[in-house]
Amino acid sequence: MFCYISRIYILVSLASLLVFFGGIYIYLGHSTPSFRVCPDNGWRMEDLTMQTGLKYAQPSTQNGRTDVNSVTNWNAPLVWEGTFDPVVIDAIYKKMDPRVAVVVFAVGKYTRFLKGFLESGEKYFLVDFRVTYYIFTDNEQDVPKIKLGKGRTISVVTIPSAKRWQEVVLGRMKWTTITIDKQIRNEADYLYMMDIDSVFHSRFGAESLSQLSAVLHRGYYKNTQRDQFPYERRPKSKAFIPYDEGDYYYTAAVWGGYLEDMYKLVKYCYTQSEEDAKNEIEAVWQEESHLNKYLLYNKPTKVLSPEYLWSDYDSIPQDIKVVRISQLVKNYAEVRPNGGQ
Ligand SMILES: CC(=O)N[C@H]1[C@@H](OP(=O)(O)OP(=O)(O)OC[C@H]2O[C@@H](n3ccc(=O)[nH]c3=O)[C@H](O)[C@@H]2O)O[C@H](CO)[C@H](O)[C@@H]1O
Ligand SMILES: [Mn+2]
After folding, report:
1. Domain extent listing, the chain
2. How many C-alpha atoms does 130 have within 13 Å on its Cβ side?
3. What's the record's note on cofactor binding (predicted)?
4. Which ipTM was obtained for this model?
């Protein structure tokens, strides 16, 4: 009898242990990427909690931006200056203290852009957050020594040189996929992909963080009909989008999200472009075409206005109240290994 009870007791104990640890395993985010937990402090991503006693302006249901739309037709925020309060946003996201990876490529002559990008990034990009710049380059010696803020680091990844710029821009998908698997997965909660030929001019903060955030391309955000978007139109390519479909045209120069969601998307762009290469076709705007295809059928959870990537080539219209980061004017023919466009 005693023996029988103790056997039941052991079985029940084992079962409860299983349930307990199973629960912790699921809680720690091993089930779905959107349930990730910051490993350092156990804070769940996108828990919109805030400390008590914070002082900030009362939000209004009546006043806000009226000159632009600040919500998509799938009810995701469309972020413009004036649609968020940085005090509230920072309070929410600082509680989690996420680790943010920024992946940039500086291959060939593009190392000249590193200094301006990094120095301005230290002034304006997610200030007071933990940031690691992953610099993929074929020339480690040309990575400048920049004074970084607390909790911010640089990690250099050496990759081969390239003969064609198209090879570099598409290669970003391949090398990022490989390096997330090898290294970044254990070091970051969010990941951004960015062009290096840009300079930050103003706050680019935690309001940009979400499961998947994409930026409206400055050239097509206002009056362009969907059949005029520069999507890939040849059915032979994996990036093909028919003329009567499309939401927006997104830039491939700034995009970000949860590490695992970004991994899935970067890998998608990589494998789709590999398929295209097998079929002897290259999408019209390389990875940007594949990115736009993905985001049409897998909607981003935040859409960022062109404030989050403007260009020094263009004048600034009324609805762009602040330029947060801008592409530099460059001599394409001089800076690219196989010349211009
Ligand atoms: C504003 C915008 O929409 N930018 C996109 C547009 O780029 P851009 O015309 O701005 O292309 P780009 O010359 O800046 O190339 C994209 C990035 O690749 C890297 N790079 C490129 C060439 C090279 O020799 N070495 C090197 O390191 C570097 O990080 C650069 O910023 O079209 C490209 C693909 O056609 C990409 O989709 C860019 O994201
Ligand atoms: Mn660029």
Report:
1. 2-31, 78-335
2. 13
3. Binds 1 Mn(2+) ion per subunit.
4. 0.94
